[in-house]
Amino acid sequence: MNTTNHQRRTLLKAVAALGLTATGMARAQTAKMVQVWKDPSCGCCKDWIAHLESNGFMATVHETGNNAARARLGLPQKYASCHTALVDGYVLEGHVPASDVKRLLKERPQAIGLAVPGMPVGSPGMDGHVYGGRRDAYEVLLVLKDGSSKVFQRYT
C-alpha cells in the first residue's frame, strides 16, 4: 500500500471515530462562525443558538452576559435583548431569524447589524412548546452606522 492510500485510510478512520460524515465535514468547513454573549442561565438564548446551528452556523458562546459586548460593539441600548452576537463584522441583537442573518451576509449593507429588540414570542428561541403556538408580530431592524434603524423584515 502506498503512503497516499495509507494516509487516506487513516484520515477516514479518524473521521469515522469522531462520528463525522462527509456531509458533516463539508458543513463544518462552510459554516459561518458566530460569537454569542449571553447570560449562562438563559434558556431562550440556548434555543436561538440551536436555531442558528441548525441553519448552518457554528457558535462560540461566551457565558458572561451581553451588556458589555453590546456596548463594545457599538449597538445602542434601545435595541437591547437578552443576547448579542457577532458574525462576519455584523452585530446581531436578540432573536434574529437565521434567514435574515443569511440575507444580511449576502447583501452586506453598510450597517452595524440586525436587532430584534425585546423578546417577541414566536421568534427563534422564543417559539418552544411552552408558548403554546402563540406568535407575536415583530420586526427585524437593520441598525445603521449612525444608530438609526429601518425595518429589514416584518413577521406577522
Q: And the CATH topology of the largest domain?
A: Glutaredoxin
Distance between the termini: 62 Å
Outline type: globular
Mean pLDDT, as a whole number? Answer: 87
Can you describe this structure?
The chain is an alpha/beta fold and 156 residues long. It has two domains: 1-30, no CATH class; 32-155, Glutaredoxin. 33% of the residues lie in helices and 26% in strands. The protein contains five helices and seven strands. It has helices spanning 3-18, 22-30, 43-53, 67-72, 98-107; strands spanning 32-38, 57-62, 83-87, 90-94, 113-116, 138-143, 149-155. A seven-stranded mixed beta sheet has the order 2-1-3-4-5-6-7. Strand 3 (83-87) and strand 4 (90-94) form a beta hairpin. The longest helix has 16 residues, at 3-18.
Identify the notable features of this structure and list them briefly.
single chain; alpha/beta; Glutaredoxin; 2 domains; 5 helices; 7 strands; 33% helix
Write the topology of this structure.
Layout: H1 3-18, H2 22-30, E1 32-38, H3 43-53, E2 57-62, H4 67-72, E3 83-87, E4 90-94, H5 98-107, E5 113-116, E6 138-143, E7 149-155
Parallel strand pairs: 1-2, 4-5
Antiparallel strand pairs: 1-3, 3-4, 5-6, 6-7
Summarize, please.
Helices cover 33% and strands 26% of the residues. The protein is built from 5 helices and 7 strands.
